[in-house]
Amino acid sequence: MVIKLKNPVLSGFLKGLLLMIIMGILVGLLMYNTEIPETFGPYLSLSILVLSVFMGGFWATRRAGARGLIIGLEVALIFAFSLLIVTLVFRPGYFSWGATMIKFLLVILAGVFGGMSGVAFYRK
């Protein structure tokens, strides 16, 4: 059963979230079954986050066909605030304004660049 969403921003966010979950599981299995040092974990998780937001913005704008900067920014903001809420609810002791601002900036840039790239691959 395939559900078609009319809102490209929500669709891009959900596809990006699904990609993030799948990539997180795969990287977790890879790190568990190989000798990759655990010190690479934060860098891998940040890479997964940035790539997922980029692809979410890309897919949303590719579907919408226009306003790549705005739609990519909207997808990125949904990701950023969702992750902020999840962090504050489940891991409040690990919250850091410095790290949050860096991640926020990277997520915004990834969403905007993904949105601008998606316009180039628009299909009717």
Summarize the structure.
The protein is mostly helical and 124 residues long. The chain contains four helices and no strands.
User: Mean of residue pLDDT?
Assistant: 90
Sheet of most strands: none
- Secondary-structure class: mainly alpha
**What distance separates the N and C termini?**
23 Å
Number of structurally distinct domains:
1
Shape, principal axes of CA atoms = globular
The low-pLDDT segments are none
Computed over alpha carbons, the radius of gyration is 15 Å
Give the H and E element order.
HHHH
Per DSSP, the total helix count is: 4
The percentage of residues in β strands lies in: under 5%
How many beta strands in the DSSP annotation?
Answer: 0
From the structure provided, what is the oligomeric state, counting identical versus distinct chains? single chain
Architecture overview:
There is one protein chain. The chain has helices spanning 8-33, 41-64, 68-90, 97-120. By secondary structure, it is mainly α. The longest helix is centred in the N-terminal third of the chain and has 26 residues, at 8-33.
